[in-house]
């Protein structure tokens, strides 16, 4: 056990403490808002090959996940993020100027995974100077969250346009797409159900996963972010696994072609060699 020499006393080193937070510590894949209607996994758990890959001794560090929120001004983008990150809600509207940015750390299956969340405004008068950074904001998004205000039906059409614009900057990759209806607390039960039917249809067309939320009441905010983080994590790890497999198949290590290539044996063998100091 490592010791520290403090004031001539041998004291045990204090253990690294990771506080357990049920909001951000995930061990299973959280369900979709509507499990019958999602383009993504309907399983109750992560893909088996993901758990298998995470056990491998040689895997690269997980890249942070870039999430962009798009949608009309005042639909509630900032409020959703603030409710999840700080558990706070402000009823007075303060317009976002340029880009706002939040970092949220998850621990998924024992691995650290960060979400880089940003929301951006560039379409209002006097903010033309921010247009030049639009490309940087949109590009390389792992997740796009298109938001609309459930109490303003026209904002759903705007959300579709915002999403199309963001996708134009991400043609080389396939970001996860969510369509999120905000301010569900402002609707009666009938209005809510009617709006969900319309927006659910739009989400299917857009091949997006649909969620209704309320930053004011907190309705489905945590569930939404947990689902988003877990799906982004799974996509990230499976992409890494695919890249490793591609590299491994380009460098055959077996001469007997009748045997299938076992990635786990290959990497565990490599790590044993390293530990024993064998240079061959
Ligand atoms: N009733 C209700 N009001 C909300 C909710 N979410 C946001 N609002 C209000 O809607 C207004 C706009 O919210 P913001 O989160 O600032 O909207 P935004 O999309 O970030 O706006 P921009 O910064 O202009 O892009 C504020 O007055 C919020 O208090 C909600 O869930 N329920």
From TrEMBL:
This is Ras-related protein Rab-36. Belongs to the small GTPase superfamily. Rab family. SMART domains: RAB, RAN, RAS, RHO. It comes from Drosophila albomicans. Its EC number is 3.6.5.2. Keywords: Golgi apparatus, GTP-binding, Hydrolase, Lipoprotein, Magnesium, Membrane, Metal-binding, Nucleotide-binding, Prenylation, Protein transport, Transport. GO terms for molecular function: G protein activity; GTP binding; metal ion binding. It is found in: Golgi apparatus membrane. It comes from the Eukaryota. It catalyses: GTP + H2O = GDP + phosphate + H(+). The small GTPases Rab are key regulators of intracellular membrane trafficking, from the formation of transport vesicles to their fusion with membranes. Rabs cycle between an inactive GDP-bound form and an active GTP-bound form that is able to recruit to membranes different sets of downstream effectors directly responsible for vesicle formation, movement, tethering and fusion. GO terms for biological process: protein transport. Its cofactor is Mg(2+). GO terms for cellular component: Golgi membrane. It is an enzyme of class 3 (hydrolase). It is a lipid-anchor.
């Amino acid at each position: 056990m490592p010791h520290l020499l403090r004031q001539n006393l041998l004291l045990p080193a204090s253990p690294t403490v990771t506080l357990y937070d049920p909001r951000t510590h995930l061990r299973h894949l959280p369900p979709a808002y509507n499990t019958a209607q999602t383009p993504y996994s309907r399983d109750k758990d992560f893909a088996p090959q993901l758990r298998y890959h995470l056990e491998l001794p040689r895997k690269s560090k997980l890249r942070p996940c870039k999430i962009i929120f798009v949608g009309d001004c005042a639909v509630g983008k900032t409020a959703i993020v603030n409710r999840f990150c700080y558990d706070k809600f402000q009823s007075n509207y303060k317009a976002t100027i340029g880009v706002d940015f939040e970092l949220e750390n998850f621990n998924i299956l024992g691995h650290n995974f960060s979400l880089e969340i940003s929301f951006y405004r560039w379409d209002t008068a006097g903010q033309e100077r921010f247009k030049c950074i639009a490309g940087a904001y949109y590009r390389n998004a792992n997740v796009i969250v298109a938001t609309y205000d459930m109490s303003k039906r026209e904002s759903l059409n705007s959300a579709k346009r915002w999403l199309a614009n963001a996708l134009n900057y991400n043609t080389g990759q396939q970001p996860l797409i969510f369509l999120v209806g905000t301010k569900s607390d402002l609707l009666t039960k009938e209005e809510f159900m009617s709006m969900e039917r319309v927006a659910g249809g739009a989400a299917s067309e857009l091949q997006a996963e649909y969620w209704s939320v309320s930053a004011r009441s907190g309705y489905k905010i945590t569930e939404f972010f947990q689902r988003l983080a877990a799906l982004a994590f799974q996509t990230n790890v499976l992409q890494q696994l695919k890249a490793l497999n591609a590299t491994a198949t380009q460098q055959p290590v077996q001469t007997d072609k009748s045997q299938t290539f076992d990635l786990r044996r290959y990497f565990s063998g490599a790590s044993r060699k390293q530990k024993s100091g064998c240079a061959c």
